[in-house]
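Posting for a labmate who doesn't have an account.
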Amino acid sequence: RFCLPLVPASLPAMAPGEEIIPALQESWGDFWLFRFFVNAAGYASIVVPGFLLIQYFKRRNYLETGRGICFPVIKSCVFGSEVKSVHQDDGSLPLRAEPTESSTARQVFKLLFCAAGLQASYLTWGVLQERVMTRTYGATETDPGEKFKDSQFLVFMNRILAFTVAGLYCALTKQPRHGAPMYKYSFASLSNILSSWCQYEALKYISFPTQVLAKASKVIPVMMMGKLVSRKSYEYWEYLTAALISVGVSMFLLSSAPNRTVSTVTTFSGIVLLAGYIIFDSFTSNWQDALFTYKMSPVQMMFGVNVFSCLFTVGSLLEQGALLESLRFMARHSEFTAHAVLLSVCSACGQLFIFYTINQFGAAVFTIIMTLRQAFAILLSCLIYGHTVTVVGGLGIAVVFVALFLRVYARSRMKKRSKKLPPGETPVQKV
């Protein structure tokens, strides 16, 4: 009781009284962990009521007792319309198109089209991503400008355009009959939102080349979890390439430019955010693999995930009052508007190119194209934004990408060998 009056009395000695609370709010608002929990609370305000409704309909046995105009919607969202497929050979996944009647020139043209589309989409996306998150807008000789800080709004922009593109594609083309309960997309959607948010936020603390290399080294924690949790066994070349990736990333991270001034705390925040990105992204891919046991196309998956992504992000933005603030930022800076829209267009088009490339040429060709894209992305980032890479760091980048290409080559050889195995023999589990 005696100490409390001393607190406001001491505040003017530290700073002007009316500016302290806004300053504190700004510092808390800029702290990534605080923003993460605020966003998570916004998602929980939608997830928890939805979970309770789903449990209510299941316990009530709504499939037998439900009636009325809402019955088809509730059935589709909670129960689905088909039984899950057990085998992958029944058409649950679209088979890769075999070029039996296509000429060699046509196939080469398709390959060049896919490679050019993927490179253009994701290289532009990477350059714009770094521009939006690390540079200011509206800078003049007297005004330093302002940075855009809300990564969740960028995620919302990306998802709403992807939702629109996937919806139009599904409406204009023939798709398999949808049977998965709609609510199951929400799990992949939530992890996808969080992984994208971590990816954007990480650029505030680490360089874009570091982020790209961290993504390339995702295979290491995947192998460790497979070994410890699932008791999987791996070939010798998988351990060798994982070790090479680890050495290359370590060489890049430990090499320092002479003018480097990044603090340990900043670097630690970036590493934690990248770890969050890898964890959430790994969950997304595994959950989507489980959902593909239903009969659906990749574009239907894209549509279902993005429906919930739009719902979660717009709900959280409205609850925080951040949607209007972001729109005001767009109104103040037309350059940011162009960048955000183009960023979303590249993200949506890139997803369609991914589906088409895998369908036409398989996962191995797609992996090679995307590995080259990562190398080009690092080069572009260094040229445009002036990132300094030492000789040791450059060697580390080279080691990482040599290891990635070795993985692709060895995996393709193993797949060819596994096709020649006699009945009853199975190849070693691979990542």
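Reply:
Got it, the structure tokens are right above this. Strands lie at 136-137, 146-147.
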